Structure of SbsA Ig-like domain-containing protein:
Amino acid sequence: MTRESAASPAAPASTDTARSDRLTGRRFTRLISVTIAVLVLLVAGLAAANFSQGPRLASAAINLDASVSRGNPRLLLTANLPLAEVAAGQVAVSPATEVSTSVSDRALTVEFAGILRYNTVYTVTVTDVAGTSQSATSTLEYEFTTPDVDIYALQRDRRMSDSGAKQPDTVRRTTLLGRGDGDVVFSASRIQQYVALEDHLAAVTLGDDDAATLEVVSFAGGDNVQVPLPGAGVVENLRASPSKYLIAYTFTSAPDSQGRRYDRTPFVYDLTEYSGLPVEVTGVDDLPMTVMDLVFVPDSTTLVVQNSGSSMFLVDLLGEAVLTPLGQHAELRDFVPGTRALVVADPNQGSTIDLADGAVTALDLKPSLLDESAYPGKVVLLNEQGRYARLFLQATTDINQLSSLIAVTDPDDSSVAFAPASESSSVRDFCVSPNGQYLAVETIPAAGLADEYPTLPAFSGMTTTLVDLDSGTSSRSVSGFLPDWCG
């Protein structure tokens, strides 16, 4: 009895537990089912959303420093999925810039024509972008700001110190957005000329006997490096390929030099060459060459030389140094900004030479508004569409004074881009910035005194004014002359 009475209450408890376990199992099954269903719906929703939204921008990349110094910079836009082809017409750039496009998987490359403007906010908008596996389209947009640029100028100083020594000449560096004349990066008693590289500066200095010395200065500090010259003489036509660490120049022996005599003989010096020795650039059949002018092809190790017979050649300095003939022309000018189109001039007409295939295209420039009223001077081609800047001298109310004017002309318009603040000031020279955005104009004040340097003489009180060719404004100027853009 006792055993039976103790066991009888256990049966209902066991039944309740089993029922509870069954209910819990059913709730868990329902929860799992609901969770799976929700996840399926979420995945389906996300897939539908992605399918309906079109591609999205995952990342973007551009070399900003190169965008304002080298032609045809590229912007890489990477999407979140593979892209269908994109035409250049789908791309809008502000400020307006011509572009081309290419697509590879998720990457869209936008290549800009020429070189971009300094200190400028660019907005790139690509419309109707589709993926390869869905029809929905979207708009990709990216904004970037191009950097400022260094500006160099040479200041010559005629003043004498209390001890009777001449005050040193200086090369100063500033920027477009900077103020004043900037910092001194090189000084010497008499600086004839200089060229700026990415991390160095090369300068020709003169001794008391006018003999030239060629020095290389590192911006990182350390001792100056003196480039060996064949002897006492004159260094001219100093040029640089900044990104390639190359400089070129011509050397002429002093009249009383012994041994071999050099006459405007071209040399090239590689700042990265361990020997530290310059190399002579020879002509046809490896014979010595006398050079009227020379210039580097932009961002390359190739040099264009014009010999004393006006024949022009292309020389790859780091290759086999084979001379490629470019024809005979009266004047070697420079390259169209942002291109490798070489500008040359002959007595009757100017031309461009495409260095890719050697094709020569005659220039057909529209008349300037000053052609009928002023004396024409130096001309600089600004683009391949025939836009150019030209210096004119125009009569004033003073019969003994001519005023300097620079006019910019394109196929549709012509206007005066620069005139000195005073009619008594005159323009000595001008050039265009590597990206074609600015004119750098050297002016001489009426009270300027000649410094009587034997090569590249200048005047006291000279200034260089920077003229924005798009806006026509000239809100920036620095003391000195020979901006590195004109080197």
